[in-house]
Amino acid sequence: MKGPSSLPLLVLAASACAAGGGAPSSSPGPINWPAGEFVLEGTVTYNEATPSYQGTATEDYVAYLDIADDGSSTLTSSTGLCREPIRARVRRDETVAGRFFECGDVTYFFGPGGGTIRGELSARVEETFRVPGPCRGRGTGADGQSICIRPSWRIDYRTSTKRARLRVSEEAQGGN
Predict the structure, then answer these.
(1) Which residues have C-beta within 8 Å of that of residue 59, sequence separation ≥ 6?
(2) Residue 173: what pLDDT?
(3) 20-78, pLDDT tens digit by residue?
(4) What is the pTM for the complete model shown?
């Protein structure tokens, strides 16, 4: 039973490959990367707290992208050594018209757009949150109700991923 029931599926798959030339009809053409040196910058904002303060902090990230005439690229980042994508990943990235580089706790994704580079970064950050703890001293309010007059706070830590759009500038050629 197994053989005959799978035969129509096999015939359908074979005819689809023959009709499409064996490749997806929506596959993109080659990507035209602009040759040059680019500075990629991004800023993420996250929560930061101490027992007496709750607010936000920002972290700035900078990377230097060099794209050769043949479209190959290297990336140097302020966050650590950048791992170049392996060959299979490059092919997959090209299908989404971009490239991923992992540099420490930061991942850069970028692609060509309008004669320059566009993209975003994602960064793993440790956020801190001020959370109420037990009351260390109670008193009586104007209405006679018991109120906390000496609150305590504890800090919760959470690792999260934040995203930022890349600001891109072209580096001057020849050190000018």
Answers:
(1) 43, 44, 46, 123, 125
(2) 55
(3) 333 333 345 567 889 999 999 999 999 999 888 889 999 999 999 999 998 888 999 98
(4) 0.68
Q: Return the bridge partners of 160, or none.
A: 125
Take residue 118 and report the two structure tokens written for it. Answer: 């566009």
Give the full edge-to-edge strand order of the sheet including 53-67.
73-77, 53-67, 36-50, 167-170
CA atoms within 13 A on the CB side of 126: 3
Closest by CA to 111, choosing from 88, 87, 95, 89, is 95
Q: Would you say the C-alpha torsion 15, 21, 23, 27 has a positive or negative sign?
A: negative
| 39 neighbors 64 (Cβ within 8 angstroms) | yes
Among positive and negative, which fits the CA dihedral 77, 108, 75, 100? positive
Cα–Cα nearest to 120, from 101, 135, 136: 101
What are the pLDDT digits (tens) for 123-161? 999 999 999 889 999 999 999 999 999 988 899 999 999
- The CB density around residue 41, as the number of other CB atoms within 10 Å, is 15
Name the 3-class secondary structure at 107: strand
Over residues 154-169, the mean pLDDT reads 95
Nearest to 123 by CA among 21, 44, 47, 16: 44
